[in-house]
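Suppose you are handed only these lines of text.
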Amino acid sequence: MKRSSTKWVVCLFIMLIVVLSCNQKPKEQPQTTVENAQWWKEAIVYQIYPRSFKDSDGDGVGDLKGIIEKLDYIKSLGVTAVWLNPIYTSPNADNGYDVSDYRGIMEEFGTMADFDSLLAGMHQRDIKLVMDIVVNHSSDQHEWFKQSRSSRDNPYRNYYHWWPAEKGDPPYRYSLFDAKGDAWQYDTLTNAYYLHYFAKQQPDLNWSNPKVRQEVYDIMKFWADKGVDGFRLDAFQFAAKDTTYPKFPEGYEKDFIQYYAMQDGLHDYLKEMNEAVFSKYDVFSVAEGAGRNFDDAHKLVDKDRQELNMAYAFEGVDIPKYEGYDVATMKEVFTKWDQEFADDGWLSIFLANHDQARMVSRWGNDSDAFRSASTKLLNTFILSMRGTPYCYYGDELGMTNIDFDSISQYQDIAAINGYQKALSEGEDMGLFMEKLNFGSRDNGRTPMQWDGSTNAGFTSGTPWLPANPNFKTINVQVEDSDSNSVLNHFRGLTKLRKENPVLVYGSYELISPEHPTIYAYTRALGNEKWLVLLNFSNSDSSIKLDYIKPSDNVLINNYNVIDISQGEISLQPYQAVILKIQ
Ligand code: GLC
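From them, the structure of the protein bound to alpha-D-glucopyranose can be written out as follows.
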């Protein structure tokens, strides 16, 4: 090529670059960077109680293959992680919270091969799996306990807490599930008592024994090596014990949180667990319970502590009582926990789980008129707060409490032993039964309502707990095809949260704290400011905020209409909206 034509080619090339760069869109604003972003902060967790989710073989008990059948449904919810209640081998005194083999799968739930397929199926769909680790106690049928109780000099003796009877009566300790409220169970075999903070079939493990701790870390590694993505530590705040068993102040002997939780040694165990397990895998960890106060909670979850990633505090979930609750308390409690962890640490947000009655029956209004609106409102709350949301199976449909009136209908050990205890203490049994009807855990464990066929499509056999008779109208099939259903509203919320970091990382500010019925707050990140308005009442309510404009963008609304004027918004009963503030 001649010199002059080479010049022309170079000129053309330069012109092309100039033209192209002139045509480029103006540079996008840099995305708001979020410090300490983590996948588990962005996760939306769906909790499955496997016993009640889907039965694949007709024995009346949900199983792993049943969950596998429903993976596409789970994916369709927009959730990104699943927490499974315990699936290990268990005699089921407390539905799997009494583990007899931590490396085995409960026979009724299936096999290890089923577990492997379930995990693979979740991962194919980009869904993480969180396992429940129950190691404050084991089952009394665990080999360790069988050995431990067999003789005083058995090598496993020290895996549990024993009190030799010749020392006299053991110092009083309360048990949450015992029919007598007594945490010491006498065992004739070695003339000694063993400690059980829950039922007598759930002896407490001795965490001061390094061998016990090593066993637990090996078990956790077994599951982490399989590829699970997280661990929920069941009742772990009670694992450390003061085995000098000091007398508790009079009147406080049963104060479970104040005197039984967060005893010396607990943080050392967690640091050791972190070093042995969490630091070696890409797994996250969440504690059931957050201790006695903010300081305890910070020590569990603050970043530089190297213990856990998050905890769930009970103060919020415990607000609704049989007598009712006040939205002012809800605002106050959720706000103070949010503010306390605004800069360090991370918490879960939840209103229900397998230890509670149904969300809409406790927190909302489960009458025909308001069930749908109030469930949508509660889901809006969970999915628009700061903290990792935990959504309990069935709450995406608005499942409600079941109306049991006789103790023979209940299956939960807490209900059955609680009944015995109340009877022996001469309680007003009418009131006891009413409270049980409102608050029993069995309410939250009835079969998932899939469709209008027999047993709500949960099983072809006899379900271990009956389906709620309202399954003909409240079920996945009906709600899937109704664009106004609780289910489709839930899907809208998960989508909104996943697409908008402001709902995950944005700061939270309570607005109009004194408003008697509307819970209002903003979430803000970078230039984004969102306003969440939740009318916790069965009548219309309005709120005046001078910055509200009719042109504000409504991001989600559980009604098809909205009444906004300049500076004021009126909400219908249980109306829940999220607005983008301009
Ligand atoms: C936790 C579980 C609960 C169980 C108890 C004993 O609180 O969530 O279901 O009964 O521990 O393991």
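What can we learn from it? Confidence is low (pLDDT under 50) at residues 9-31. The first helix runs from residue 3 to 23.
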